[in-house]
Amino acid sequence: MIIQREPLLNPVAVKDLRPTQITVGMREVALKRQMIRTQSARKTGTFLGRHMVPVVLGPKKRNYVTDHHHLARALLEEGIKDVFVTVTSDLSALDKDAFFVVLDNRGWMHPFDETGRRRDYGAIPKTMAELVDDPYRSMAGELRRQGGFAKDTTPFSEFLWADFLRRRIDPDVVAKNFDKAMKEALTLAKDKDADYLPGWCGPTSD
């Protein structure tokens, strides 16, 4: 099968984009919404030209997003109707069941809910508007911005960090005092217990 990596010349409606995960961090979405809102339309257009949304073509030629879910949700909420996409693979010849199996095995989907529990493929929303908030995914994004770990090419690496934090930081603390939770997260991120995670940059004995 030939892999197409050229951007589509025609824009795709944001409302028609299909997620490949169940959750996003709504704080992350809010940050992207703020960025869009505070810059000019021209600057936003330039930004979107450089950050095209990667998709896999699935059954019925639908566009399944494999990255930039937070951006897509932010665009939707800010009323931006269209976005350019980059097709990384055309799997439109597969039936739905086979398609999801291929996505899963290639690491192009993340069927885990806001509690960190793996769900059936059917639990993945059909639209960006239906994505569920995972506060720990927001923590992971903020943790990376604060230098808690390095950006990494591992698919869904922030979700691995989110799961790590979910097992160690009380959800009530995250909900009621996000800054306090982040201080705890920064300490945990440097611990040896986190050295298996992508982008870990804690102290070493070398």
UniProtKB/TrEMBL annotation:
Cross-referenced InterPro entries: ParB/Sulfiredoxin_sf, ParBc_2, UCP029669
Residues of the signal peptide: none
Pfam families recorded: ParBc_2
Top-rank taxon, per record: Bacteria
CDD domains, sorted: ParB_N_Srx_like (cd16390)
Name under which the protein is recorded: Chromosome partitioning protein ParB
